[in-house]
Every structure is written in structure tokens, then in C-alpha cells.
Amino acid sequence: MVVTKTERIFQRSIGHDDEQRRCGSAVFGVRSCSANRVAVAVLGEVDAVNGRELGRYVERHTRASKQLVLDLRAVDFFGSQGFTALYYISVHCARRDVDWAIVASPPVRRLLTVCDPDGELPLADDLSSALARLDRLAHHRHHFVWSGKSGWRAG
Q: Which among 27, 70, 128, 142 would be 20 to 30 A from 79, CA to CA?
């Protein structure tokens, strides 16, 4: 038997300092964690009514970020349109060079075992694993700096 522990990025109600959007039976919220990392949390149900909007919401809020934590731990229902949203987010993150991780509730995990059996999406076991993964990826990124005549060098 696996013991799980819940760590929340957001409280059950998202504060008014954070941008939030109600769409169908879900609330999407975003919080800037650092200059390069943003967290998007979802509370409620992701279905045909709001799956597409979830993808667009994440896209809008990852434009300037290099890392994304997608917190789906408070999702009570996750339909096939939710998986389509995750695929859309995955393509967006790949195109924009955004590292990301998903922290999921049991309903989300259940759907991913069917729709993503090879584990292509960056599903983390818990929030601390997701953050550790993103920290590792940030540490391994090479930043290149133009140094004039000698060309590009690692900075």
C-alpha cells in the first residue's frame, strides 16, 4: 500500500492577489513562484466544458516563464478533454522551451494510466518531487553568453 501526502501550493480558495478564472465547474488559479517559475492550480472538475480553456489558461500564463508546476491535486473529476488539455500544454511547453511537471489527484492519475501508458507526460509523485525535478532541470541548463571575437561561451 502506497502512502501519499498532500502538500498544497494554493489554499482551497485562491487569494485575490492571484489571478483566477472560474470555468464550468472548475477554478483555475496562477501564482508566480519566482522570476522563472509559475504554478497553475486547478480546483474542481476538468471536462468537455473547460478542458480547452485550461490549455489556453496555462498557455497565457507561461509566456514569460521557463518552468511550470501544474497542480491538479484538487481535481475531483478529470475527463478525456482534460487529457487533451495536457497534450496541448505539453506541445506548448516544448515549443516555448518551458520545463514543467504535473502533480495529480487520483482521478487525474487514473486517466493518465489509460491515456499516457508510456509516461510521456511529466507526472511527479508529489509536489516536492516536482519541484526537485524542475530544480534539477534548471541547474543543468547551459546559459551561453556572447563574448565577442571568441564567440559563444558557457556563462
A: 128
